[in-house]
Each structure stands twice: as C-alpha cells, then as structure tokens.
Amino acid sequence: MLTPGELASRLNKMVISILLVGHQKCEDNWHQKPRTIKYQSIWLIIRGKGTFTINGTHYPAEAGRLFSFAPGMVVERSSDPEQPLEYYFLRFHYTECYEEKEQWIYRSAAESRFPLEGMYTVTNTPQLIYLFEQLDTLWKRRGHMTAMRRKIIIQELLLTLVADFRTQKAEGDTTAAIEQTQDYMVSHYQEPLTLESLAQMAGLSVSHYSRLFKKYVGYSPIDYLTHLRVDRAKELLVLSEYRLKSIAGSVGYTDEFYFSRIFKKVTGFSPREYAKKHRFTPDH
C-alpha cells in the first residue's frame, strides 16, 4: 500500500466523474455470483456482515471496511443471512490530469491504475457516512452548481480517507515504538534505565510515552521494568544460593535495602521470606 503522502499525491492528480451513487440494504439471502467488474467503484460497509471474494481471495465485509473495485477484478459478494449487509457505493470514471513544470500531463485510466484497490479498514466511519449521504442526496439533483458541489464532496471523501490512513499509520508506528522499548527492557533490565532514556528511544515526550505505554501495556514503564526485575530476582532466589546483594545487583539495583523494599511491595514477601518459601530442596 502507498504511504498516505504518496496516496494524497496520486489522488490529487485525478479528475473524477460520477457514474452512480447509492445506498443499499441487502436482503437476507443476498448473493452475487462471481462477475468481472466493469467500472471503478468504492463501497463503504456500514452495517451487517458478509464475505467479498476478490480474484479468489476472501475478505470479511463488515462495518468499518471499505472496498475499492477496479475493472477486470473477478468479484463474488454475499451477505450473512442473520446480519444483512448495508452499504454505500460510488461508481465513477477517472483520469489523471495535472500541471507539472508548466506542462499539462494527461493519463487515461488505462494508463494509470487507481491507487486504491481491494479492502481497507477505516476508523472515521461516521464522517465517511456523512459524506456518502451528501453525495447520495446531491446525485438526485441536477444543475451546474450541484455538479460542482458533488466534486467538492468527492474531494472531501478522498481527503478523509487519506487522513484516516495517516492516523492509523501514526498509531501503528507508535505501537511499534512502544514494543521496541518493551523488548529493550526485557534484554537490558539489569542496566540503569530511566524513563527519559526510554521515551527518547521511542521518539516521544516523557509524558506522552508514559501515557501511551500504560494504554498499550497496562503498566507504567517503570512499573513494567520493576516487575521484570522482580520476576528475574524470584528465579535467582529460588534457583541459586547467591547473596542478596549479588542478586540485587544482577537485576539492576545497587542498593540491596532498596531492592528488598521494592521486592516486598510487589510480592508481599521480603526476598529472604520468598526464598525460604519457594526454594527447591533436595527432597522436593
């Protein structure tokens, strides 16, 4: 898939002419046999469930899914009898027409594939529904000003899609950054890690990083690190005869008394109590 910036660049060069706009509620037993698509179209599923098969690949059709069908695709569509599909659709022609370095460039649909194909997940469904509703209403009217308004709504719809994909990508990038710091903590828990250094690694401010980490992981970054260290200390206390000072140092604490307080806060036992309770003995 193109990046949101690349997608915006491609869509910005396109001139779109509407062929048909509509809103459809499917019957319980709705099923379209495999057919070769003739026209470029976009479908927004707003309710129900079903399955769309594109060139042999099955996709779930449900609220929050957007499908872009291109001429030549072989498509089969069916609705769940218990939860019939409801959707908006837009059928259109397009061409590329734009100015570059004081030269007008024109490419037909045959020379330039539409940059959206297949299934996409969208999160800003209410705004897209609102824009489809407006297009559907304007489609029933005539007049030059109405035609201009329809063009504006199409641009708003495409812009909303690009913004939606950009938001999803940013959230995905943030999740990846959080997971990266998680992995780093697992591998380097014995080092003197700070909230500031972890936030810097994620490319986020300390407050933003802390908030997002807790949202995704369920612990604050420092609580997560503490639990990693205490879990490792539990293993060492049970499986070894190391002195408490050595165990504290091996899990990132230079002060054994501070380590003992943290350990008891997390487990409810002092390290010595925990070792006595859980340590393996020859007769076990």
UniProtKB/TrEMBL annotation:
Domain annotation HTH araC/xylS-type: ranges: 179-277
Organism name: Paenibacillus solanacearum
SMART domains, A to Z: HTH_ARAC
Name this polypeptide is given: HTH-type transcriptional activator Btr
GO molecular function, one term: sequence-specific DNA binding
Xref: InterPro entries: AraC-bd, HTH_AraC
PROSITE patterns linked: HTH_ARAC_FAMILY_2
Keywords for the protein's UniProt record, in alphabetical order: DNA-binding
